[in-house]
Amino acid sequence: MILAFALIGAVIGFVPGGSFLMIPMEVYLLYRIMNKHNAFDWMPFFGTAAMLCGISAVLKGLASLLQALPVIGQIANSLVAFGFIMAFGNLAEQHYSKARRPQPPAAQKSPPPPQGPQIN
To answer: Which of 9, 21, 64, 116 lies most in the core, judged by the most C-beta atoms within 10 Å?
Structure first.
């Protein structure tokens, strides 16, 4: 899943100015990883998403400066996007695989009634 997002990000990185479209995609990746590990909670999600948006906006702004170089800039922008999404995705995957939310205990079922003839 992370590799697919990183490859999409790398393709978007080739488009001038398209790197800002990756920020919502990265937030969605965070949401998918949290749900995958049953660790979704609103407050940590918003906090991590805000931090991710801030870091991504700075990196995307710097990467957009690379677009001034015709071919080298686009390749560098694409590689930065791929690397950032892979690094963030793997860090989030590693963190949330350990941070599962506790499940409520399952209701205990009473044993089924005995079947067949009863001997008294």
So the answer is: 9
Question: Which of the four pLDDT bands, split at 50, 70 and 90, describes residue 101?
Answer: low
- Helix 72-98 vs helix 42-65: crossing angle, to nearest 10: 160
For residues 71 and 48, give the distance between their C-alpha atoms in angstroms, rounded to a whole number.
33
Q: How many CB atoms lie within 10 A of CB 109?
A: 6
How far is it, in rounded angstroms, from Cα 16 to Cα 25?
Answer: 17
Number of H helices and E strands in the chain, helices first, is 4, 0
Residue 78 contacts residue 10 (beta carbons within 8 Å): yes
**Which pLDDT does position 100 carry in this prediction?**
67
Model's pTM, two decimal places? Answer: 0.73
SS percent in the chain: helix, strand, coil, step 5: 70, 0, 30
Longest dimension (CA), the chain: 92
Q: Is the pLDDT of residue 18 over 60?
A: yes
What ranges do the domains of the chain cover?
2-98
